[in-house]
Amino acid sequence: MTCSNFSSVRDALAELAAIIGHAQATDPLAPVTVLVPSHASGLDVTRYLGRTLNSGAGSAGIRAFTLKDLAAELIADDPALNGRSPLLPVLRLGAVSKVLNDAPGLFKEVADRPATASAIAKTAELLDAAPDPTDPALPGLTHEVLRIHGTAKEALASKWYTDHDAFALAGQKLGTNSVQRRLGTVIGFMLGTEPRPSESSFRRSLEETGMQSITASGAEGDITTLTTASDADDEVRAVVRLVVEKLAAGTPGHRIGIFHSASRPYAALLSQRLTDSGITFVGPAAHRLSDSPLARGLLQLLKLDPQQPDARAILNMHAEGTFAWQEQKLPSSAVCEKLHASPPAEDETGEKSSDSRARQLEQFEIFQSFVTALAARLEQIHTSGTWGHASAGMISLLEDFMGPRTSTERPEKAAARDALSQAAFDLRHLDLVGPQPRPSLVQSAMEEAVASKGGWTGKSGTGVVIGSYADAVARDLDVLFLVGAAEGLAPARIRENPLLPDTVRAMMACGLPTVEQRAEASKEQFFAALAAGSERIVMSPRGDLRGSGSYQISRWLIARPDKELQSFAHGIENGSPAKAALPPTAQEWRLRRILTAEERTVTLRDDAALQQALAATRDRRDGIFSRFNGNLGTHAGTIVEAEKALSPTRLEDWVTSPLSYFIKHVLKVTILEDVTLEVQISPQQRGILVHQVLEDYVRGITKDGLPPSSDRLMELADAAFEEFANPAWLSHVWERNQAMIRQDLQRVAAEDHGSRTEGWSYLAEEASFGPEDTDSHPPVELALNDGTVIRFRGKVDRIDRNADGTVKVIDYKTGKADKYAPLKNHPTADGTRYQLPVYGLFARTLADPQSPVAAEYWFISKAGNFAKIGYTVTDGVVEQLREDTGLIMSALRNGVFPPRPESDRYVNFTTMMGAQELGQQWLKLQNAHELQPYAQLLKAEK
């Protein structure tokens, strides 16, 4: 064997052409076999030879192979294979799982965990070349791993062959005359160090039969430029700027290569920046099959319990566009999430029409049917008796629940579905070697199958080449970029395999590389990659913004950097490090123009997007009431529907926070509260429960003629407890809550008994007014001082009548009474409470004109001390209502929605937007002159 070493791939290629020219000097068709480290480098080699051999007339008889491809070629017709197929990783996993199931040995305690089988299966790939264990000095754990590997391999041998089998069989054929004639001159071109013993053994066999080797290794002195950047993001931005410069100077895209030390974050960053710049690129896909929403969704589904499927997980998958139910069209993910968090129920205010409610019920039923059908399909997969049935179940799951939405589906989504279907189809082979399927095994097997499938972007020869350092080896390029040359990335930290540590590898003496040897191979690979280009630019990040750490230049490079790129802004302004300074994206063009303009203020005025951002920042900083602070005066008169009845709580919502009012009632945004996440009944649910019990109780008296009875009240309470009970609630807390609610209801019944002795009786258990599509009372109208009329809607909890003719409307409250105390001194609590006066206005329509009308909050809980806060609804009360309502309606019609913050004691729009920042913004804005007419309301405490 002869070996030639060069400092560049170009020189190595010239030597390769010379050797081939000599080999074909007398016979232009003489066979030549070139062994290369990758398929991409093989294309580069054949294209180079086609350009240079025979004065550019092309070449014949030359074939390029990777070692694995050559082995497959040599054994393709060998009878020793006897119909066997290449071993899939998932089949090895299944065989190992079966051994662990049947004879776990030392792994007894963890045999049923998928991670155990996965770790042993990955180790087993290295052990295929190991001889039978005979050394008694090997640790017991190693003997166990070897035993499991051997048993699994024996079970697989009749149907499948491993890479080691292929290399060993191919190595035996190398010495035969027929193979030598077929291969002809064999040349190894930059093969490097093979990580697996079987591959190394095959290479040694080739060398023993006369293979010539050509290698190329760059040196630190060959680096054209060594540059550092602040972080990986700036590093990639700088590289893309240089690529644009090279393309503009006439360098073809396929002659430029960018290679990284670590796929995260470089693969995604390169893909994003090159795409933004409109640059075509070719290389391994930044996103593998496992990154696709369909793959994530399928694997997540396999983790669900079919008996109690997690609706939140299903909703998350739906939000990613995973589902397309073939049986019927699913509502949107937003609709499904809202329906799950707040199932359709009778609307207390009558705001929604019956058609809208019917549509909600229909959509909710569709979603529930979908979840039920999905759970049933998952149950079929989980209970499959064979892997064939489990495989078919997953394929049908993909087709029926995750199929294409339209005939024009995106190609990448269709490709992901096809790949998943193939992965699921391959699992059927596990019936021959694996244990009986169970949910955890099905899940781990599918995860393994998905993880083994990569992806590719672009077509070779059509764009800039990207990939890892390994992909750069033996590439024929004009311009080479190596990014991520920093400690911790190059070299990356290499860890020992706990099942096969270095000490054991040395004892086994079968060529398994140690940590030190793997680190040295990484270094050799880096310098082999450095040889790929004529112009070589190496870049290193100084910091890691994702991990808040810092980096040093790789230990492989001793020289100081030629350039240290400055900040992001400096790079934008100067195009650093490119000389031609061509910004690669539209965003960088705009920023460059702003930063470099002689008359910057003029340039700023011309940039509409920037002007809007600056205006928003300025107005919020300086307390200017503009459209960025809730001033929608340009839409005055179009926000409020004049003919639509309003509930009194709408007015209260505006006073609490005009911005939240706009988000909730104008934009129709809802904060969803998932009751399945709670550990006890919420205050809102408690209020609904108590209201329902009292409503049913009073209805029985007013409509059915039943006598008052505390026993019947308790029966109704027990029925409500059963209806409202949530399995997620802590049982002991729920029992305590029930006891407290019973005590509160008994106190209500006792006080009602006392009221009857004072002449009071129930008139109605509830009364709605406002909804025009129901048989409730019509809206209550109030003429405002500006001549307009506002129409109110609502629902009172109870109406009582006294023997003297007085009518009283009662609104139940189950919380504390403290924040309602101002009603004792002001009928609207200084403009913050409107339910009582509006309900009183409604009660006036039910009473005789001469009879007094009262409105009252009754705090029916121990927390509220069973207090009653209310008053007689006089003309003065109505006049105050008219004045305060007119002020709020003026604000609504004029588009006044400033960001007054809500309380930060509970989840609301204020807390979601940032309570502290919004509070500071309001302090600057509240004294704006446009808000002074409403100052009394907006500064009142609610």
Word description of this protein:
By secondary structure, the chain is α/β, with parallel strands linked by helices. The protein is 47% helix and 12% strand. The protein has 36 helices and 26 strands. The protein has an eight-stranded mixed sheet. The chain has a five-stranded parallel sheet with strand order 1-7-6-2-3. A five-stranded mixed sheet has the order 18-23-24-25-26. Helix 7 packs parallel to helix 9 (197-208), helix 10 (232-248) packs across helix 11 (263-276) and helix 16 runs antiparallel to helix 17 (411-426). The N and C termini lie far apart (91 Å). The relative contact order is 0.09.
Keywords for this structure?
8-stranded mixed beta sheet; alpha/beta; 36 helices; 47% helix; 942 residues; 12% strand
Brief rundown of the structure:
The chain is of the alpha/beta class. Helices cover 47% and strands 12% of the residues.
Main β-sheet description:
8 strands, mixed
Given the structure, what is the number of helices? 36
Low-confidence stretches: 346-352
Please report the total strand number as a whole number: 26
Mean pLDDT: 90
**Helical amount among residues, as a percent range?**
40-55%
Q: Strand percentage, roughly?
A: 5-15%
Strand line-up in the sheet with most strands: 11-10-12-9-13-14-8-17
Q: Give the N-to-C terminal Cα separation.
A: 91 Å
Shape, principal axes of CA atoms: elongated
